Amino acid sequence: MAEITLKGLAHSYEKTPTRVADYAIRQMDHVWHQGGAYALLGPSGCGKSTLLNIISGLLEPSEGEVLFDGQRVNELPPEERNIAQVFQFPVIYDTMTVFDNLAFPLRNMNTPEHRVKPKVLEVADILDLTPLLKRKAKNLTADEKQKVSMGRGLVRDDVTAILFDEPLTVIDPQLKWKLRRKLKEIHERFNITMIYVTHDQLEASTFADKIAVMYEGQVVQFGTPRELFERPTHTFVGYFIGSPGMNFMAVEYQGDQVMFGSQPLPVSASLKRAIASANASNIKLGIRPEFITISPHQTTENIPIEVASLQDLGTHSLLTFRLNGQPFKARLPEGHPPVGETAFAHFDNAHVALYIDEYRVEAGHE
Ligand SMILES: Nc1ncnc2c1ncn2[C@@H]1O[C@H](COP(=O)(O)OP(=O)(O)OP(=O)(O)O)[C@@H](O)[C@H]1O
Predict the structure, then answer these.
(1) What's the superkingdom here (predicted)?
(2) Does ligand 1 come within 6 angstroms of the Cβ of 47?
């Protein structure tokens, strides 16, 4: 069993880091609970692999602690951490058979041969590798090889967590969903903590119960896929999650109005109060494309927009428009009437979120 705690963790690849930007991982505290199916999601370079390598012990953090069930493991080498890591590219021995590859971690720990065979057969069965057991690994396809890599993590009874670093990168798109489902099955069957690194939100939300979104070396939100969509706590999460992401407007309070450039916005009274009393210059409003409605008629609740393009996506259309010179996206339901040159946008106030210095602030709705 392992609950993995990261305490005051930070890492810099520089010998003498001086600026925040010198850190691949910026000061963070985080807990991965025992048995969870987690994803670590973020863009290239945000620090995902660095964080995984710190957890598995391939990399020693420059600051802070890694605790397994409350015990500091910073000094423990990877082989003593009971953690398996599956990389982008399969790590297997090409000249060995699939059986011997799967048996390798057990034999390496001097497990008696009568216990090796049943375990290998069990894991091969779960991963649909039984018909391939006698084949040399070099003759396998990329997805079969990656399944063998995963199997090598699963055969060990002492493994309490498996870390997957973009494991489906080399897999054909049509096989990806199959392997993802397999991983989910394995998670349900074994009581293992799984952390799955990806930059693909679909992969993250189909695999994980909870997703940690990383941005510039920090976990900016840890939540269910639904929470990330409905209540992004950081502007980056709003922008990164969703297809397309959230629209943002930099606003200011001027003469009893909330202004987006020269455009007054008809926001709720509570939002107006929150903006009026915010002691900050970086104030943004966020709204998802799903909560913007478009009308050909002006009311007191909507604002004039400049229509740029309309894209038919089958189940819905995506309208691109400009407001105050900035592009916005609105998702229009199937069967929406055509949008003419004169159009007005209504932002559903219940779904307009306030961000101060990039973090969400609750303003209430009235
Ligand atoms: N060995 C290294 N030496 C120096 N800098 C490194 C090293 N490995 C990573 N970095 C830097 O640390 C930062 C985080 O990189 P990391 O590989 O952890 O990100 P990532 O989110 O996994 O990206 P990707 O998805 O592209 O692998 C990046 O700025 C990267 O250039």
Answers:
(1) Bacteria
(2) yes
